[in-house]
Amino acid sequence: EQNYRSTKNIVNAANSVKNVTATSLRIEADDAVGTSSRHITTQVGTLSVDSTGTDSSGVYITEDDGVVLDTVAASGASHVTSTGALNSPTGTALSGVISGGDVVLQTLDGALSSVAMGGNLSAGGDVLMKTSEVPETAGTTNANIQLSGGVASQGGAISVDAADGVSLGAINLTTQGGSIDLSAADAVTMVDGTSLQSGNAN
Predict the structure, then answer these.
(1) Whole-angstrom distance, CA of residue 202 vs CA of residue 190
(2) What is the DSSP string of 66-79?
(3) Three-state SS for 137?
(4) Tens digit of each residue's pLDDT (9 = 90 or more) over 96-125
(5) What is the tens place of the pLDDT at every residue in 122-140?
(6) Residues in Cβ contact with 37 at an 8 Å cutoff, skipping those fewer than 6 apart
(7) Torsion, Cα of 125, 8, 23, 149 (10° steps)
(8) Longest alpha-carbon distance in the chain
């Protein structure tokens, strides 16, 4: 498990190869997490992010393979003080993705999913959830997008773009002023109770 907390933004430094490799990743930042031109790069199983947007905002993450949006517990690591003593872990669990700006979550070769309750996504701007497959594994990799957590944009559009299929649970996809776009190479499936509500009727 990896936990990152910043009172500013979290950036992908030049020439870095992989920012985080872990079973689960929890990120809290007062500003943006990554940028539109330099995403945070990960290889994790479970993800939760909070970018409140004090001076800047947005969440930009590119995942190597599959990732699940879910609740990630507070840091399990003890902290060493200046006296050499150990402090117990502090903080609270973090669920889903919260951003004051745009959210871009994409995979290079794998699936993207979210769980009910713990996997909700809320953004102040545009939202892109996208999966891909590398040519070597096309047709064998699971690159579905399966959402059981709601997705909401307060000031932008929502795009869901899957290299395989899209499956929506009994959730709400809601925008206040933008469109909702679902795209898939395979089927788009919505169960009874799925709701799409667009602020501009598209």
Answers:
(1) 17
(2) -EEE--BPSP-S-E
(3) helix
(4) 999 999 999 999 999 999 999 899 999 999
(5) 999 999 999 999 988 777 8
(6) none
(7) -20
(8) 60
Identity (one letter) of the amino acid at 155? G
Lookup: tokens for 111: 């699936």
- How far is it, in rounded angstroms, from Cα 31 to Cα 56? 5
Which DSSP letter does residue 150 get?
A: -
Beta strands in the chain (DSSP E): 2-6, 20-29, 40-51, 59-63, 67-69, 79-80, 86-87, 97-99, 103-107, 112-114, 121-123, 127-130, 145-147, 151-153, 158-162, 166-168, 172-175, 180-184, 188-190, 195-197
Taken as a whole, the chain contains a residue count of 202
Cα(81)–Cα(61) distance, integer angstroms: 32
Side chain identity at residue 110, one-letter code: G
Which tokens in the block code for residue 48? 């939760």
By the 10 Å C-beta count (0-12 exposed, 13-18 middle, 19+ buried), 201 is classed as: exposed
Whose CA is closest to 163, among 142, 189, 136? Answer: 142
Q: Residue 51 forms beta bridges with which residues?
A: 29, 99
